[in-house]
Every structure is written in C-alpha cells, then in structure tokens.
Design brief:
There is one protein chain. The chain is 30% helix and 29% strand. It is of the alpha/beta class and 284 residues long. It has helices at 3-14, 20-25, 49-59, 116-123, 141-149, 162-174, 188-195, 215-220, 243-254; strands at residues 31-33, 36-39, 65-69, 82-87, 92-97, 100-105, 131-134, 154-159, 181-185, 202-205, 227-236, 259-271, 274-283. Helix 5 (141-149) links the parallel strand 7 and strand 8. The protein has two domains: 3-90, Met-10+ protein-like domains (GMP Synthetase, Chain A, domain 3, 2-Layer Sandwich), CATH 3.30.300; 110-283, 3-Layer(aba) Sandwich (Rossmann fold). The longest helix has 13 residues, at 162-174. Helix 4 packs across helix 5 (141-149). The structure holds S-adenosylmethionine. S-adenosylmethionine (SAM) is lined by residues 76-78, 110-111, 115, 136-138, 141-142, 158-161, 164, 187-188, 206-207.
Length: 284
C-alpha cells in the first residue's frame, strides 16, 4: 500500500480518539510489514501510545502486532529501536512483495517496504545471463526478486549482519531460488576483494551511508571493468540545490573510472530536506 494512503488510513482510524491538532502531529506515514505495523509517535503524543496502538490493531484486519519505532534506523546493521505496543509480542513476520516472501525479525535485521518500487525498477533492467553482486543485501529482497523474474541469472548476495544473513538464507529457500542466489556472510569489500574480482555485469549498492566509500570495490567487481552500478546515497539539500547533481558530483570526485549516468532519481524522502537518491552508472 502507498505510504500516503497508509497515512490517510491512520488518520481515519484515529479520528475519534485524537483531537485535530494531535492528528496533525502524528507522522503522516507508518509501515505495515507482513502483519506488523510499525509506527512513529511524536513526543507529545506518547502518553496516548497504547490507545493509538489498540485502535490500529482493532481497525486493520491484517495487523496482529503494533510496534513503536523508538529510534531512527542506525548503526552498521541499519536497525531501529522497537517497542511492542499491542497485539502478539513478536518482532518476526513474513512480508509479501511482488510475488516473493520475506521472513524478517525487525529488531535484528533491516527491512523496509518503502523500497518496493525501487527494487522492481532495478529488477526490470536485468537481462538474461547476467551475473550480479548485491553488496548490502539484508534479508535478500533485491536478490530474490531479480532471481524470480529472470530465468538465467546468478546473484551473489552479501551481508555482514549474522541475523540478516540467516534470514536471507531462509528466504532463498522459501522462495525456491537456491540455484540462483548465493548468500555470502561478510564485509562486502573483503568478500569482493578475496573472491569476486571482475565477475559481475551489475553491482547493487543499497547502503546509502557507505556506498561512496565502497565505490572502488564495486568497480573492481565488474567484468572487464564494464557494467552497471546502482549507487544509492542520502543527500541533504538546501534551498535551490539539486540533490541529484550533488550525488553526481560526489561520484565524479571519487570514481577513478569512466561512467555515464544512465538514470538519476529520487527514491524517497527520508527526512526534512533529506532524500535517498539513486544513480544508475554505466561504467566503461
Ligand atoms: C539499508 S540495508 C539494505 C537491505 C536490503 N538491500 C533491502 O533492500 O532491504 C543495508 C544492509 O547492509 C548491511 N551492511 C552494512 N555494512 C556492510 C558491509 N560492510 N558489508 C556487507 N553488508 C553490510 C547491513 O547489515 C544491512 O543489512
């Protein structure tokens, strides 16, 4: 479901429980992942967190657990603080997206449904016969979606969070793509330097905080120094500034290889004047 319609739904459900100004203060979006709803509640409304959670639980048919997000997504493994507010006391769920299923424990591994359209955009570009490296694979959504949609493909799928890796292994089995997705535990740079040099036609870098510093590694993985790199970055932008131009400038300053920007787009807003951008770099 689109974030805007989820936001509207949230306000609809809570209309009779909160005043108009409280409703306005409530964040416009929340996530439903499998049968878990994750909600952010602004400080002044925290005393009403249980009431809000119970209202959500009663109104949303598929939701069995309501979690409060208590911190931003942070740290090396990109995790968020979570507190159980209502319903079944669990952090684990199974999410369905584009015909794939992803099991995840939201307190120990990263997953967001907000990248759903972006994952599909990337998957739709993959051609038969490609070898792909997903450097920051999490529980495997990009890798599994690609392998489901392309017959002849091999995806090396790396993550350094032991829990994300464990769920990725399980998700590969659940989606029956064992012959196409190879899960690898470890630091993407170490893995690529030791065993995946010059093998890939396409490299995906879905870790906006670190992609720039790992760009030389991504290049070293491309077969004959040619292919596509999907580069992600979070960009703060001031009035009149173009975040896409900033991202291109960062890549130009770092890359010691020739590239054309085949596509540049804003994936999503992640905060005030802060966006996640993607650049599809055609290298070589
Ligand atoms: C933003 S998440 C992306 C997950 C996934 N691609 C998705 O769409 O859900 C980034 C992932 O990179 C992993 N990670 C962080 N540093 C890493 C590194 N140096 N090498 C490999 N994985 C890393 C984190 O554990 C996390 O699961």
């Amino acid at each position: 479901m689109l974030q805007s319609s989820l936001g509207r739904l949230l306000k609809e459900v809570l209309r009779e429980k909160l005043t108009p100004s409280e409703l306005k203060a409530l964040y416009a979006g929340f996530d439903v992942i499998g049968n878990i709803a994750v909600i952010k509640i602004p400080e002044p409304l925290l005393p009403k967190k249980s009431l809000i959670a119970e209202a959500l639980l009663a109104s949303l048919k598929n939701v069995r657990t309501v979690l409060l997000q208590t911190t931003p997504v942070e740290g090396e493994y990109r995790l968020r603080g979570l507190e159980i507010l209502a319903g079944e006391p669990t952090f684990e769920t199974i999410h369905r997206e584009h015909g794939c299923i992803y099991k995840v424990n939201l307190s120990t591994a990263y997953f967001t449904p907000r990248l759903s359209a972006e994952r599909l955009r990337v998957a739709n570009q993959v051609k038969e016969g490609e070898v792909i490296i997903n450097m920051f694979a999490g529980v495997g959504p990009y890798s599994i979606l690609i392998s489901k949609r392309v017959k002849d493909v091999m995806v090396y799928s790396i993550d350094n969070n032991p829990e994300a890796y464990r769920y990725m292994q399980e998700n590969i089995k659940l989606n029956k793509v064992e012959h196409k997705v190879i899960p690898i535990f470890g630091d993407a740079a170490e893995v690529i330097e030791s065993r995946l040099q010059r093998v890939a036609n396409r490299v995906i870098m879905p870790l906006p905080e670190k992609a720039l510093s790992y760009l030389p590694t991504a290049y070293s993985a491309l077969k004959d120094g040619k292919g596509i790199i999907h580069y992600y970055e979070h960009i703060f932008y001031g009035k009149g500034e173009d975040p896409l131009r900033s991202a291109v400038a960062h890549v130009s300053g770092k890359a010691e290889f020739r590239f054309d920007v085949e596509y540049a787009g804003i994936v999503r807003e992640v905060g005030p004047r802060l966006v996640q951008v993607v650049l599809d770099l055609r290298v070589g």
